[in-house]
Amino acid sequence: MLPFVFTQQAPSYDSAKVFYVRVDPGIGVSDELIKSLYYLLWFPGYFGFNWDALYDCLRDFEWIPCHKIVVFHEALPPLDRKELKIYLEVLRDSVLDWRSNDTHELEVVFLCSDKMEIEDILKG
User: Fold this and answer.
1) DSSP characters for 4-72?
2) What CA–CA distance (Å, rounded) separates 11 from 106?
3) Max intra-chain CA distance, the chain
4) 37 pLDDT higher than 90
5) Can you give the residue ranges of every domain in the chain?
6) Could you tell me the pTM of the whole model?
7) pLDDT at 1 over 90
8) Which residues partner with 69 through β-bridges?
9) Which ranges carry the Barstar (barnase inhibitor) domain (predicted)?
10) Category of 101 on φ-ψ map: left (φ > 0), alpha (ψ -120 to 50) or beta
């Protein structure tokens, strides 16, 4: 079972309690996606702009005051399949890692229409 949340529409949250970011659905290059997440999630200056650095920062969040962090995707990023698989694995592993830690909660949200494709990509 996937650790992501699937919804019919963009969720809404209390901005005083939840740090909410929306990933631009038009980003089709992994370097641009990583750079966008750097800005959206306020990653520290030492961020390395690669998949490993993304995973490391998704597992930290000491700079974000809210307990819950939500990363919403209104569409799967149009990356090539190999890069998209890496991205989804980084997100999946990060969400799972936070489950054993109560400092923060990471919630990654996709639309229901993307669920089967995500399952297929992560199986491959």
Assistant:
1) SEEESS-----TTTEEEEEE-TT--SHHHHHHHHHHHTT--TT--SSHHHHHHHHTT-TT--SSEEEEE
2) 14
3) 39
4) yes
5) 5-11+20-123
6) 0.95
7) no
8) 19, 106
9) 31-102
10) beta
Residue type, 95: V
What CATH architecture is 5-11+20-123? 2-Layer Sandwich (3.30)
pLDDT given for residue 26 in this prediction: 95
Segment holding 123, helix H or strand E: helix 115-123
* CA–CA distance, 89 with 35 (Å, rounded to integer): 18
Mean pLDDT of 62-69: 96
Query: How long is the chain?
Result: 124
Q: What single string gives the DSSP state of each residue in 55-121? A: HHHHTT-TT--SSEEEEEESS-----HHHHHHHHHHHHHHHHHHTT-SS-EEEEEEEGGGHHHHHHH
Per-residue model confidence (pLDDT) at position 102: 87
> What pLDDT is attached to residue 5?
98
pLDDT tens figures, 72-108:
999 999 999 999 999 999 999 999 999 988 899 999 9
